[in-house]
Design a protein that fits this description.
Helix content: over 70%
Strand order of the largest sheet: 1-2
CATH superfamily: CDP-alcohol phosphotransferase transmembrane (TM) domain
Strand content: under 5%
Order of helices and strands: HHHHEHHEHHHH
Number of domains: 1
């Protein structure tokens, strides 16, 4: 029984290590003169890394085997699989013809992903109230998923190398993803989602939207549509939350002099709560 319990602690780490393997395999596919088919396979490998990364934490919570070692290993895995691997993929896929600009844009994605993970770990240690309803900044697996979905959509619809006219828009999209990762834009975790009529209806709407995209456009565009909607939803929701916060502060009575002295420095928590 004791040995079985020890093996249970290994299980979530196996999911994490498998995610690292997928990211490493994607990097090897991108090395050298990678063909469009190899880049497509690399995108699929990163997508599978997202799948395994999504299950390691759930398995740890289900088996009650959460450890600090697992948390640190997961962050290191994310840097490889969702930072370096997608940066290498997008560089080989669309940015290498831009020269140093392409190198810098790909590096910025990887660097901002590492910064976002470091900030996430710090905030997670400060927050002892349980899982939060929001991520602060775009999660790095979803930023990587956006790049993967672009590669898959292009390969499914057109195939072949990326045209010169698309290289600059792709570079701008990668920069936007990098900025969103280190921003304070809030994205829902959906950890508080419970089975109900409302959630079931929302799920059916999402599925129906995917079916419409697949039938009217191309099946390869479904992932791109889902990731784009999530990215846009976080931006729109953050704008409304910021507007509501500003209106609430405007409507609040002016603080007294003693309160002003106590509140000279704004709380970081307040900033992260509404931006």
């Amino acid at each position: 029984m004791v040995k079985l319990r020890k093996l249970m602690f290994v299980l979530p780490n196996l999911f994490t290590v498998t995610s690292i393997f997928c990211g490493f395999y994607a990097i090897t596919l991108c090395a050298g003169e990678a063909s469009p088919a190899q880049l497509y396979q690399a995108a699929l490998a990163i997508f599978f890394a997202i799948f395994f990364d999504g299950f390691d934490g759930r398995v740890a919570r289900l088996t009650k085997t959460q450890t600090q070692f697992g948390v640190e290993l997961d962050s290191l895995a994310d840097v490889v699989s969702f930072g370096v691997a997608p940066a290498m993929l997008v560089f080989k896929w669309a940015l290498q013809d831009l020269g140093f600009v392409g190198v810098f844009v790909a590096f910025a994605f990887a660097a901002c992903g590492a910064l976002r993970l470091a900030r996430f770990n710090v905030l997670a240690q400060r927050n002892n109230s349980g899982p939060s309803r929001f991520f602060i900044g775009l999660p790095i697996p979803l930023a990587a998923g956006m790049i993967v979905s672009m590669v898959i959509a292009h390969h499914g619809a057109k195939g072949g190398p990326v045209g010169a006219s698309a290289q600059l828009p792709i570079a701008i999209a990668v920069v936007l993803l990098a900025v969103l990762m280190v921003s304070t834009v809030r994205y829902r975790t959906f950890k508080d989602l419970q089975l109900s009529t409302k959630s079931a209806t929302a799920f059916m709407v999402v599925v129906a939207g995917g079916v419409v995209v697949a039938t009217q456009l191309h099946p390869a565009f479904v992932l791109l549509a889902y990731f784009s909607v999530y990215l846009a939803f976080g931006l729109v929701e953050s704008v409304f939350l910021l507007r509501r916060h500003l209106l609430a502060r405007k409507a609040a009575p002016a603080p007294s002099e003693s309160e002003e002295e106590e509140d000279e420095e704004p709380s970081d928590v307040d900033e992260q709560e509404y931006l």
